[in-house]
């Protein structure tokens, strides 16, 4: 009887759906955050930038990872600071991630010469305190920012290539499942 019960429990555990930590990117996409450290990222600076490889936080904890591997912008640590990918992306790129804006969130993204404010008071499709899906598609010289499937803005790309930057300005925000696909 005990053997049958153990086998039944094992079957249920194996058949259980994968958790959030088991997220796999879509075909052709590459994860941009390990969830453990800032491999592939650097601090944004006027000249170059300090590599963040192997570090679990940046700017004294302004950017850090939570226990689930999500990137956190901590409002308790003050500072208007930026991190950016080491990798540069071209005008033919798709970037996707989920973000969880907290109260007072007003943080920014920079991509292909565009500054995009993640400010729920200005973006009606953003739900504060809930996970939102961001899709940034650069194609044919235009960069389109979509949130929860709704176009928030489209801009002409101002540069041929750029890094992806996150700016911690005001309020909290978490980011998970950050991934990119490049090429046609």
TrEMBL record:
Source organism superkingdom: Bacteria
Annotated signal peptide: 1-20
Gene3D superfamilies the UniProt entry points to: Exo-inulinase, domain 1
Keywords assigned: Signal
UniProt name for this protein: DUF1080 domain-containing protein
């Amino acid at each position: 009887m005990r053997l049958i019960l153990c086998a039944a429990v094992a079957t249920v555990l194996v058949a259980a759906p994968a958790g959030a930590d088991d997220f796999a990117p879509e075909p052709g996409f590459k994860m941009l955050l390990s969830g453990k450290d800032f491999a592939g990222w650097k601090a944004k600076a006027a000249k170059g930038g300090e590599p963040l490889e192997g570090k679990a936080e940046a700017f004294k904890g302004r950017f850090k990872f939570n226990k689930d591997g999500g990137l956190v912008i901590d409002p308790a640590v003050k500072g208007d600071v930026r991190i950016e990918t080491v990798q540069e992306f071209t005008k033919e790129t798709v970037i996707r991630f989920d973000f969880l804006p907290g109260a007072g969130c007003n943080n920014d993204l920079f991509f292909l010469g565009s500054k995009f404010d993640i400010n729920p008071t200005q973006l009606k499709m953003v739900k504060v305190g809930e996970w939102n899906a961001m899709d940034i598609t650069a194609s044919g010289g235009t960069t389109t920012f979509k949130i929860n499937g709704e176009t928030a803005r489209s801009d002409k790309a101002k540069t041929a290539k750029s890094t992806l930057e996150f700016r911690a300005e005001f309020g909290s925000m978490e980011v998970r499942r950050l991934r990119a696909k490049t090429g046609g």
